[in-house]
Design goal:
It contains ten helices and no strands. It has 218 residues and is mostly helical. The radius of gyration is 20 Å and the shape is elongated.
C-alpha cells in the first residue's frame, strides 16, 4: 500500500506528472479512468497533494502536454535539412522519433494518442496548436527539399507524414509490435513511406493549388 508523503516538495510535482502519465497509459489500454485519486495513489501522495500542485485534472493534463511538446519538436533538430538530401533527413527524423517513443512510451502515448481525444475543450485547442506547429515544421522541410508540387500538395504530404508517424506509434505501443524489435520494423516501414511521399512527383499539384486559391478568392 502506498504511503502518502508531504505535498509541498518540488519533487512531488514531477512524481505526480510521472504517475499521471502511467495512469493515462493504463487508461488507454484498460479503459479504467485515470482519476485524481488513482494518480495520487500511484504517486504515493494524497489527492489533496495533487490539488496542491494542480488546480484540476485539466490543468494537470495541460501541463503534461506542454512539457512533452518541446521534446517532440526537438526531434526536428536532427541536422540542417538544407545541407542534406530530403530522404536522408527524413530518415533521420523517423529514427529520432522512434528512439524517443521507445524511451518514452507513456509520454508518446499521451501526446499522440490520448490527449487529442480527451473531452476537454482547452486541451483539444492546445493539441491543435501543437499539431499545427508540428505540421509547419514538416511543411517547411518539404518546401525546402525541392519536391516538385504545389503548396496544397505540400500540406497534404505534411499531414500524411504525420499520420504515418502516429500509425507507427500506435502499432508499436498498443501491443501489435514487440517493443524495440517491433519498432525496428516500424522504423523501416516508416522510412519507406515518408520517403515515398517526398519523392513522388505530383505534376497536377500546381494546378490543384491554383484551383483552390481561385476558389478561395471567389
Amino acid at each position: 500500500m502506498a504511503t502518502s508523503r508531504p505535498a509541498h516538495r518540488p519533487s512531488r510535482r514531477r512524481e505526480i506528472i510521472s504517475a499521471a502519465l502511467g495512469e493515462l497509459s493504463d487508461e488507454k489500454r484498460t479503459g479504467e479512468p485515470a482519476t485524481i485519486e488513482a494518480i495520487a495513489h500511484r504517486a504515493g501522495v494524497t489527492a489533496a497533494a495533487v490539488y496542491y500542485h494542480f488546480s484540476s485534472r485539466s490543468e494537470l493534463m495541460s501541463t503534461i502536454l506542454a512539457e512533452i511538446h518541446p521534446e517532440v519538436m526537438h526531434l526536428f533538430e536532427v541536422g540542417d535539412f538544407t545541407a542534406v538530401s530530403a530522404p536522408f533527413w527524413i530518415e533521420r527524423l523517423v529514427d529520432a522519433l522512434a528512439d524517443w517513443v521507445v524511451d518514452n512510451p507513456d509520454a508518446a502515448r499521451f501526446y499522440f494518442l490520448v490527449a487529442p481525444v480527451l473531452p476537454d475543450e482547452a486541451l483539444v485547442a492546445q493539441c491543435a496548436e501543437f499539431r499545427s506547429e508540428f505540421l509547419s515544421r514538416v511543411f517547411d522541410f518539404i518546401g525546402s527539399s525541392g519536391v516538385d508540387c504545389g503548396e496544397l500538395s505540400v500540406w497534404v504530404r505534411a499531414h500524411a507524414i504525420r499520420e504515418v508517424f502516429i500509425c507507427a506509434i500506435e502499432l508499436g505501443l498498443e501491443g501489435r509490435a514487440r517493443p524495440r524489435r517491433g519498432f525496428h520494423e516500424l522504423r523501416r516501414a516508416g522510412r519507406y513511406l515518408v520517403v515515398d511521399l517526398l519523392q513522388h512527383r505530383d505534376p497536377d499539384g500546381q494546378a490543384v493549388a491554383a484551383r483552390a486559391s481561385a476558389d478561395r478568392a471567389g
